Amino acid sequence: MPIVTVALMEGRTQEQKDAMFARVTEALCATLDCQPEQVRIRVEDMSDGDFAVAGKSVARSNAERESP
Amino acid sequence: MPIVTVALMEGRTQEQKDAMFARVTEALCATLDCQPEQVRIRVEDMSDGDFAVAGKSVARSNAERESP
Amino acid sequence: MPIVTVALMEGRTQEQKDAMFARVTEALCATLDCQPEQVRIRVEDMSDGDFAVAGKSVARSNAERESP
Amino acid sequence: MPIVTVALMEGRTQEQKDAMFARVTEALCATLDCQPEQVRIRVEDMSDGDFAVAGKSVARSNAERESP
Amino acid sequence: MPIVTVALMEGRTQEQKDAMFARVTEALCATLDCQPEQVRIRVEDMSDGDFAVAGKSVARSNAERESP
Amino acid sequence: MPIVTVALMEGRTQEQKDAMFARVTEALCATLDCQPEQVRIRVEDMSDGDFAVAGKSVARSNAERESP
Questions:
Q1: C36 Cβ under 8 Å from any chain F Cβ
Q2: How far from A32 is each of A24, A38, B65, F6, F34, CA to CA, in Å?
Q3: Which of A17, A68, B24, D60 has its CA 20 to 30 A from that of A33?
């Protein structure tokens, strides 16, 4: 029954996502006493203009770091 | 007040989504004692590379089924 | 594959929720070309102090309506 | 620790989003006794075909209003 | 149309939440060109045993800090 | 930056959750090129009356299995 949502900054490759699906499913089954077939994982890619920490979008923070 | 999120594998037509909005709103009002104006439904399309069951993305499972 | 979340003001009975599960699953299958076994629905009860419209919690709006 | 998700009809500019990030972070810190570094805000843009009120998508409601 | 979810460590008072609802609604309307009646905000309280940073629940981190 | 939500049928112990936090964080860092401090995981417990598969709540399915 675990339904998992993983919100990520966009840019990971499909290979990275596939490796993550396998390893996270393994980790859930090893600790939560469930079967792989019960595990659903969803990735939500976030653009750096749509995610903010401390009131500033990641896009803006990166731009300021690159041209202070 | 029902706020509903429907996460779907991408690919449904707008007609299918419009029919779903109407029928699900009807179902909610018939069972939860609420008015249509109170119902908000949001569709979230998922790509088959971003959704995994049993540790494998739907994209990968489909590819393996098509070329075993 | 539809994974549905229904956020509701708390207070519905289990009978109402069970009726909603059946009717919403029917509505999704009739419009989105999917099978009942593929449909997962989750109810999230919200307390009236934790949900606000127009800047005011439902609890507060109700209290003001009852004692203007 | 506040993790905030803001689901919006798509179409806002990055400037509007950046102004929102700053003002909402300020509002949270002023009322919830937390620090800006603890606040994460995520914007989720919704297309008008994927969001429905009263059983009708916003796209359809807008189209009907423009050509009754 | 903004639908906002604010996930918080549990423990805030209703007064804090009410103040947050008002100030965040104001912040959204001032920056996103929307009306208060269009804004819905939902608080989700998280217990410190159900939220983890860097692989450790907040409950555990707090306990270790209090009795190193 | 990964922000993870794990929706579970309620009933897991805090030990199981703590083991899951550690192993899932490890799995994410090993596959997504991120640091443990960037990973936030949230558990959402679901009661069996609030989660349905194929139109029937888990509570009902369990009851029918126990007394067919």
A1: yes
A2: 12, 11, 29, 11, 24
A3: A17
Please state, in angstroms and rounded to a whole number, the distance separating the CA atoms of residues B30 and C50. Answer: 25
DSSP string, B9-38: ES---HHHHHHHHHHHHHHHHHHH---GGG
pLDDT for D1 beyond 90: no
CA–CA separation, D45 and C58 (whole Å): 26
Q: Assign residue D27 the CATH number of its domain.
A: 3.30.429.10
Region F20-29 average pLDDT: 98
Q: Min CA distance, C7 vs chain E (Å)?
A: 10
CB F48 within 8 A of CB C42: no
For chains B and C, CB pairs below 8 A equal 74
Q: Beta partners for F16? A: none
Distance from CA of B12 to the nearest CA of C (A): 7
pLDDT of amino acid D67: 84
Residue F4: how many CA atoms within 13 Å on its side-chain side? Answer: 34
In the numeric block, the tokens 């949270």 are attached to: D28
Domain housing E56: 3-66
| C56 contact residues in E (CB cutoff 8 A) | 18, 21-22
Looking at chain E from residue 39 to 58, which residues have their Cβ under 8 Å from any Cβ of chain F? Answer: 46, 49-57
Nearest to E4 among D4, D9, D23 (CB): D4
Q: Identify the DSSP state of A56.
A: E
Q: Give me the number of domains chain C comprises.
A: 1
CA triple C31-C33-C38, angle to 5 deg: 110
CA distance readout (Å), D15 to A49, B48, B50, D25, D34 = 10, 32, 29, 15, 25
The interface predicted TM-score of the complex, written ipTM, equals 0.95
Q: What is the pLDDT of residues A33-46, one digit of tens each?
A: 999 999 999 999 99
